[in-house]
UniProtKB/TrEMBL annotation:
Homodimer. The gene is kynU. The modification N6-(pyridoxal phosphate)lysine is found at K230. InterPro entries: Kynureninase, PyrdxlP-dep_Trfase, PyrdxlP-dep_Trfase_major, PyrdxlP-dep_Trfase_small. Its cofactor is pyridoxal 5'-phosphate. One of its GO terms (cellular component) is cytoplasm. It catalyses: 3-hydroxy-L-kynurenine + H2O = 3-hydroxyanthranilate + L-alanine + H(+); L-kynurenine + H2O = anthranilate + L-alanine + H(+). It holds the Pfam family KYNU_C. The keyword Hydrolase applies. Pyridoxal 5'-phosphate binds at T99, T100, F127, P128, T129, D130, D204, H207, Y229, W259, T285. This is Kynureninase. Pathway: Amino-acid degradation; L-kynurenine degradation; L-alanine and anthranilate from L-kynurenine: step 1/1; Cofactor biosynthesis; NAD(+) biosynthesis; quinolinate from L-kynurenine: step 2/3.
């Protein structure tokens, strides 16, 4: 690979989604080399106007009369994500609550759907909230957790998971893209293996949605959740999405019996009787303002096309890997993600014994990655608004910092969020 800056510029000139950069606030103006789109995506330029419209027209003037449009927002945005991002059908995706709460709802519903099975499987290296929810549900139900080990850089080995599947397993919770390394699971193969064992798999798509195609219908996925503030650019605290395959919906009943899942909601009936569709997984009043922001972000991803974004994400990752090998390896930095781009999501992770100090030095120089334990720097160049030259410049900055040793003057103790 040609590692000159001119070669990076040539990749930008040929980039079919380059124009989307101008539709994000700050991109190209704030001077930041923002490589944390896998933590919090940039704000779309259209978001403030969308929020203002909901606030000034629908809330200020429409008041309670606006509920006629608000009441369908969670499924309207869900349908948009289903079609434009997730490869699912209408009526299969709902937006609301946090990823953690959605995970809880679907995990309990799935465990209930597999009576007589007393084991929940999760990955020992999965994102904390996933492991905590699995542990909490297991404790409350008297079930056992089977944590399968995974290589911190390479992700979960399919054969290790397969060995953990038996007739006791009710539900398996896994991330499609590992939060630390970016390792990409084989969603179709794992889903098939878990289903063949008579269990259900619940996918966390937080680091996958908007970054790689997840093709839920084509891959035969039953259940999934994911957040919308990373590659979907829905904003801080944006509500999560949940997906339940249509044929499964009526077999499942989630544990939080709220009035927004109720049949004939405004009849205020005496007993809980959930609607047959995806709304049965709703709980309470939807976050109307936040949904307006998610809608803007989801539309941008759908317009750009997940396949094109994934292709660019892979190419950006390849540039990170090539530059890391050439420039950073001599400074003791190692790749901490799968080397094969087909086995990675859209972020690449580097290991360095000085990872935390390096992260602080980079942030102070306008390069924003994030730090992950134990000694990792995660680089998430979101394909919608990150240029190849941004990656090149950021990597050059990392090289400069390491060569100068300036990072060694930063505290070794972790003290701030990045
Ligand atoms: C894999 C994964 N799951 C879940 C979450 C967060 O869940 P919540 O929306 O409940 O904060 C994150 C946040 O970074 C994540 O990376």
């Amino acid at each position: 690979m040609d590692l000159t800056r001119a070669a990076a510029e040539a990749l930008d000139a040929a980039d079919p989604v380059a124009a989307f950069r101008a539709r994000f606030a700050g991109a190209g103006e704030d001077g930041l080399l923002y490589l944390d789109g896998n933590s919090l995506g940039r704000m779309p330029v259209a978001t403030p106007a969308a929020l203002t419209r909901v606030v000034e027209e629908e809330w200020a003037r429409g008041l309670v009369r606006s509920w006629s449009s608000w009441v369908g927002a969670a499924t309207r945005v869900g349908d948009l994500l289903a079609e434009g991002v997730l490869g699912a059908g209408p009526g299969e995706v709902l937006v609301g609550d946090s990823t953690t709460v959605d995970l809880y709802k679907l995990l309990v519903a799935a465990a209930d759907a597999r009576p007589g099975r007393d084991v929940l499987v999760c990955c020992a290296d999965d994102f904390p909230t996933d492991r905590y929810v699995v542990a909490g549900v297991a404790q409350a139900r008297g079930m056992t957790v089977r944590e399968v080990p995974a290589d911190v850089d390479e992700g979960l080995d399919h054969s290790v998971l397969a060995a953990a599947l038996d007739e006791r397993v009710a539900v398996v919770v896994l991330s499609a893209v590992a939060y630390r390394s970016g390792a990409l699971a084989d969603v179709a193969a794992v889903t098939r293996a878990v289903r063949d064992a008579g269990a259900l798999v619940l996918w966390d798509l937080s680091h996958a949605a908007g970054a790689v195609p997840v093709d839920l219908a084509a891959n035969g996925v039953d259940l999934a959740v994911g957040c919308t503030y990373k590659y979907l650019n829905g904003g801080p605290g944006a509500p999560a999405f949940l997906y339940v395959r249509r044929e499964l919906q009526e077999q499942l009943r989630q544990p939080i019996w709220g009035w927004f899942g109720q049949r004939d909601q405004f009849a205020m009936g005496p007993v809980y009787d959930p609607v047959p569709g995806i709304e049965r997984f709703a709980v309470g009043t939807p976050p109307v303002l936040a949904l307006a922001a998610v809608e803007v972000g989801a539309r941008l991803v759908a317009e750009a096309g997940v396949d094109r974004l994934a292709a660019k994400g892979r190419a950006l990752g390849e540039l990170v890997v090539a530059l890391a090998d050439d420039w950073l390896a001599p400074h003791g930095v190692a790749l901490a993600s799968p080397r094969d781009p087909a086995r990675r999501g859209a972020h690449v992770t580097l290991a360095s014994s000085a990872a935390w100090q390096l992260t602080q030095a980079l942030v102070d120089r306008g390069v924003v990655p994030d730090f992950r334990t134990p000694d990792r720097v995660r680089l998430g160049p979101a394909p919608l608004y990150t240029r190849f030259v941004d990656v090149w410049d950021a990597m050059a900055c990392i090289r400069e910092v390491l060569a100068s040793g300036v990072h060694e003057g930063y505290p070794t103790e972790r003290s701030r969020v990045t």
